[in-house]
C-alpha cells in the first residue's frame, strides 16, 4: 500500500539557527513599534552584522539602510514593525506562480538561507478602512489553531502597518485536494476514502 502524499510529508518549523531567523525572532520578541538607535545597536546590532557578513545580496543592506543602518550601526530610531515586515518579505524568493484566483495569488517560494520551499499566498484584499476581511481572519485563525498531518501548516503571516499587502506563508505540498481527488487510483484503501470524504 502506498502512502498518501498528504500523510508522508515532514512537519515542523524551520531551524532558527540561520542569522536572518534569529534576527526576525528577536524583532518579534521586542513587541514595541520603535526603539532608539542605542537600544537597536545593543539588541539587534550583532544579529544584523551576522546577517550581512553571511549574505552576498546587496538588497539586504539596502533594506537595512532604509531603517537607519549606516556604517555598521543604527544611526536613527528604528521602526521595528516595518523592519520585521521588510525582512520577512526578503527572506522568501519567489520561484514560480502556482495559481491565482479572485482571492489570492499563490507562489512557490524558497528561503534564501535554508532553501526550504513554501507556498507564499499574497492576498488580493489586504487592509482597508475596516481592517482585514473576515474571510482572511477566519482562514488565518483556523490555520493557527488546527494542527494535523492532513491540514496544511501555517508557518507565518506577513503584513505591515500602513501597507495593504498581506502574505500567508504555508508549507508547500506537491498537489492540492482537487489533484488528489482527480487521480485515477484503482485501489484506494478505506482509510484514504474516509480521510478524503472528511476533508470535502
From TrEMBL:
Its EC number is 2.7.11.22. InterPro entries: CDK, Kinase-like_dom_sf, Prot_kinase_dom, Protein_kinase_ATP_BS. It is an enzyme of class 2 (transferase). Residues 92-200 form the Protein kinase domain. The keyword Lyase does not apply. PROSITE patterns: PROTEIN_KINASE_ATP (PS00107), PROTEIN_KINASE_DOM (PS50011). It catalyses: L-seryl-[protein] + ATP = O-phospho-L-seryl-[protein] + ADP + H(+); L-threonyl-[protein] + ATP = O-phospho-L-threonyl-[protein] + ADP + H(+). SMART domains: S_TKc. This is cyclin-dependent kinase. It comes from Monoraphidium neglectum.
